[in-house]
Amino acid sequence: MGRFDDLAVLVTGASSGIGAATLRAFVAEGARVAAAGRSTERLADVRASSVDPDRVTALSVDLGEPDAGRALVADAIAQLGGLDVVVNNAGVAIDAPVLDTSDEVWRSTLAVNLDAAFEVAQAAARHMVECGGGAIVNVASTDALVPEAPLLAYNVSKAGLIALTRTFALELGHRGVRVNAVAPGQTLTPMTEGELADPAFRRAYLAAIPALRAATSEEIAAPILFLASSDASYVNGTTLVVDGGQLAGTWYYPWDRPEPEDGS
């Protein structure tokens, strides 16, 4: 028996990284999953890699388009016959210093990371309220709490997602809908593999993490499933930081700080 036996789940950004790991984890625990992403080919690969592909419905969508989030929820409900859990995971990150952030970068980042998340969460919550309850988990970032440069639009979008999470939780808790967020730190995904491939960057970045390594996507999926499950029935409006201790603090004397092993 799984925690999500025959429950209907929507995961956005499911074609790779955290989203793909989350999809596979839900399927392994008995859920029927609508996997949303832009790449039909990648979605097909992720579907095939799950323990039961028949429990996965691939939905191709570009969440950067207006109203795409609402249309996606309607499609997921039609395909699955309902919706019990939503994971808002889709996101983009574009390096741009504050003085050089263009309107296009700003708007395109917020369109996917915040606007679409709002559309998906609102449409799903309306359905969940009518059906007696549900759970929404938004994937934010430690950058929402301690910004990194040069990522203005990304930082702001993820901070907004945490505010959205708290507000939804405040208004919907008494109506049976729990809304929480996870804030991952550095995670091994296709989005980060390029920068982490640079040995100097990798060593310097990982040295600031007490765990001395980046997370795997599966290590982020696990707390997502916890927040979505009945194990977290009294958890609402929280942001669970999953960062290997990175935000805990910094070493006063840098020369005493542990360093990652070569090749880490």
Describe the structure.
This protein has 264 residues and is an alpha/beta fold. 41% of the residues lie in helices and 14% in strands. It is built from eight helices and seven strands. It has a seven-stranded parallel β-sheet with strand order 3-2-1-4-5-6-7, with helices on both faces. α2 links the parallel β2 and β3. The chain is globular. The mean pLDDT is 96.
Brief summary:
With 264 residues, the chain is α/β, with parallel strands linked by helices. It contains eight helices and seven strands.
Shape: globular
- Total beta strands: 7
In which order are the strands of the major sheet placed? 3-2-1-4-5-6-7
Low-confidence stretches: none
What distance separates the N and C termini? Answer: 37 Å
Helix-strand layout with pairing:
Blueprint: E1 8-11, H1 17-28, E2 32-37, H2 40-49, E3 56-60, H3 68-80, E4 85-88, H4 103-131, E5 134-139, H5 152-172, E6 177-184, H6 193-196, H7 199-206, H8 217-228, E7 239-242
Parallel strand pairs: 1-2, 1-4, 2-3, 4-5, 5-6, 6-7
Helix pairs in contact: 1-8, 3-4, 4-5
Describe the structure using short key phrases.
7 strands; about 260 residues; single chain; 8 helices; alpha/beta; seven-stranded parallel β-sheet
